[in-house]
Write a structure and sequence with these properties.
233 residues, mainly alpha, 2 domains, 11 helices
Length: 233
């Protein structure tokens, strides 16, 4: 459960979109109005809300299809310990037949091309903000050397893990578990910032966002707590 929640509300989600919006705002002088005119900010927040909502709907529908496909193929036939991509590809065999491996391989490659830049980029944004480095994909390498070196290092570590005898499925599960644990304190701080008038001025989050936000934070915290308690027995 912690892994499922961790891969749904991954910490990188809290950095990537926000950092991209800030970077985009820095390139447009008219965004200074965001601080002075809440109505102007509301228009931009509506765009962000639509973008996030559509993305989350698609990602969760796809995730549900993956879970169902795996359950009715592998799990139904007693295959519960998957340690390779080839085993996971078997879930597609009833539908894709002989092309199961090719379809799965294309999916893995496509996912990698999508995920690697986002994951490495979000890590670079987070580390750069901590150390006060210049960051942003709109800057060249010499202007944001530390930012790009983090991206290179993160990609290299991922590539090295792929070359070593590391169980990729277990690595994915445990990385999701770590994401779930780390998300709890990040969500607490994020909610505190979002409702602070001292920090946000007139742009504090609504009551509805506070209720759902603290509710999601509570669910994440309870899942992590139960995981730690269950591991003791």
């Amino acid at each position: 459960m912690v892994a499922v929640l961790g891969t749904t509300s991954s910490p990188y989600l809290f950095f990537w979109q926000a950092a991209q919006e800030v970077e985009d705002s820095d390139r447009r002088p008219d965004t200074a109005r965001l601080r002075r005119a809440p109505a102007y900010a509301k228009k931009h927040l509506l765009r962000i809300k639509l973008d996030t909502g559509v993305g989350m709907i698609f990602s969760n529908v796809i995730a549900l299809c993956i879970v169902i496909a795996t359950a009715v193929t592998l799990n139904q036939h007693g295959i519960t310990n998957i340690s390779s991509s080839a085993q996971a590809a078997e879930a597609l065999r009833p539908i894709a037949g002989a092309f199961a491996f090719a379809v799965f391989a294309l999916g893995i490659i496509g996912t990698g091309l999508l995920a690697v830049p986002v994951l490495a980029g979000s890590a670079a944004y987070a580390v750069s903000e901590v150390f006060g480095w210049k960051a942003g994909l709109s800057r060249d390498f010499h202007a944001a050397r530390g930012f790009y070196l983090i991206i290179v290092a993160a990609t290299a570590v991922g590539t090295l893990m792929g070359a070593l005898a590391v169980d990729p499925i277990k690595a994915l599960v445990w990385s999701a578990v770590v994401n779930g644990v780390i998300s709890v304190p990040i969500m607490v701080v994020m909610m505190w910032i979002g409702q602070s008038r001292h920090l946000m001025g007139k742009l504090t989050m609504s009551l509805r966002h506070r209720v759902f936000g603290w509710g999601a934070t509570g669910v994440m915290a309870l899942a992590v707590l139960f995981m730690f308690v269950a591991s003791l027995f």
